[in-house]
Amino acid sequence: RDYLEDLASATGARKWFQDLTLKRIARTSTVPYSRKWVYDIAVTHNSTFANSDMVLHNSITISKAGIMATLRATCSVLAAANPTFGKYNANLPLSEQTKFPLPLLSRFDVIFKLVDRASDDLDYRLADHILKTHKVGEIYRGMESNEITDYSISEESELIPPIEKKLMRKYVSYARSKVFPRLSDQAIDLIRNDYVRTRKRSTPDTTPITPRQLESIIRLSEASAKSRLSAVVTREDALLAIEIITNYLENVSSVDGIIDTNIIMTGTTSRQRGELESVFLIIKDLLKESNYAEVSDVIAEGKLRGLDENKIRGIISKLKSDGQIYEPFDNKLKVVS
């Protein structure tokens, strides 16, 4: 209540809160819940979410391009994003190259980066496929309108999918609704042993795998079994899932060949976070002796701790953008209290 009153007074927006009623929770209790999913919702203090469909009805309402729809929130998510700067930069963490919030980005089971590199063989096959597909598509349009009646597309038969679209949809629908594979003992042993072995490679600066990736391996193992319409997750299913997760972590969440899931979880490696904390503490220590921390003094002290000037300046910029410090005057820093 005090916070809201202070906020209203400071912003001159008391009318916003005139109809607000505060109630204390009298008691809590456990209620039966038969659905599969449980939601963990993190909300900032200034977010309006009480009337959100996600909270009330487990659904999401979208309005885009003249389309109004309400979708169930209990669904898989396949998302795609272009690099913020137009081209993927292998030297920057993924979180700095997309507009996905870190809490959302870290919840995907797998993330793949598609980098466009020149390759004579791949470029030839890709161009050939696109051109032939376009040609066959125009032929089909002509045949449907009776403009073309004497053409055979047998020479482009390799473009015809081996499984008809309608049959594929039935297959996927059946697998999702009728097949519920369980982990075999062999799959459990393989996943557990691989998880423990990978965790042993942890260092004070890196975390190669977390329970979140363990759950991803389980889901991918079950998906592999479902794709075979199998009621049992075999050792081969588990091995395939482990290979996929390992490949994803090596390509998206590694530094100098060392896997560190902190890159996805927090946007920085453990080492980078340690450097941020070190520079922040330097600024706080300098403020004990003066009203402001001179940037030159921060750089000098940082060099004594093994950091180069460019890195220190970059850390200062990040601390300012994160709202931990500010610069009231040129080259003079203060901590946000």
Task: Draw up the topology in text.
Layout: H1 2-11, H2 53-57, E1 59-64, E2 67-72, H3 102-105, H4 120-144, H5 165-178, E3 182-183, H6 185-199, H7 211-227, E4 232-233, H8 235-252, E5 254-255, E6 258-259, H9 262-266, H10 270-287, E7 293-294, H11 295-304, H12 309-321, E8 325-329, E9 332-335
Parallel strand pairs: 3-4
Antiparallel strand pairs: 1-2, 5-6, 7-9, 8-9
Helix pairs in contact: 6-8, 7-8, 10-11, 10-12
Summarize this structure briefly.
By secondary structure, this protein is mostly helical. The chain has helices at residues 2-11, 53-57, 102-105, 120-144, 165-178, 185-199, 211-227, 235-252, 262-266, 270-287, 295-304, 309-321; strands at 59-64, 67-72, 182-183, 232-233, 254-255, 258-259, 293-294, 325-329, 332-335.
What does this structure look like?
This protein has 337 residues and is mainly alpha-helical. Residues 45-52 have low confidence and may be disordered. The chain has helices at residues 2-11, 53-57, 102-105, 120-144, 165-178, 185-199, 211-227, 235-252, 262-266, 270-287, 295-304, 309-321; strands at 59-64, 67-72, 182-183, 232-233, 254-255, 258-259, 293-294, 325-329, 332-335. Helix content is 46%, strand content 9%. The protein is built from 12 helices and 9 strands. Among the domains are: 2-72, no CATH class; 120-159; 270-335, Arc Repressor Mutant, subunit A (Orthogonal Bundle). Belongs to the MCM family. It comes from mine drainage metagenome.
Extended strand count = 9
**Uncertain stretches:** 45-52
Mean pLDDT: 79
End-to-end Cα distance, whole Å, is: 22 Å
Annotation field: number of helices: 12
What is the helix content?
40-55%
For the biggest sheet, the summary is: 3 strands, antiparallel
Find the structural class using helix and strand composition: mainly alpha
Report the β-strand fraction as a percent range. Answer: 5-15%
Instruction: Specify the overall morphology.
Output: extended
Integer-rounded radius of gyration = 28 Å
Order of helices and strands: HHEEHHHEHHEHEEHHEHHEE
With strands numbered from the N-terminus, the spatial order across the biggest sheet is 7-9-8
Looking at how many chains there are and whether they match, the oligomeric state comes to single chain
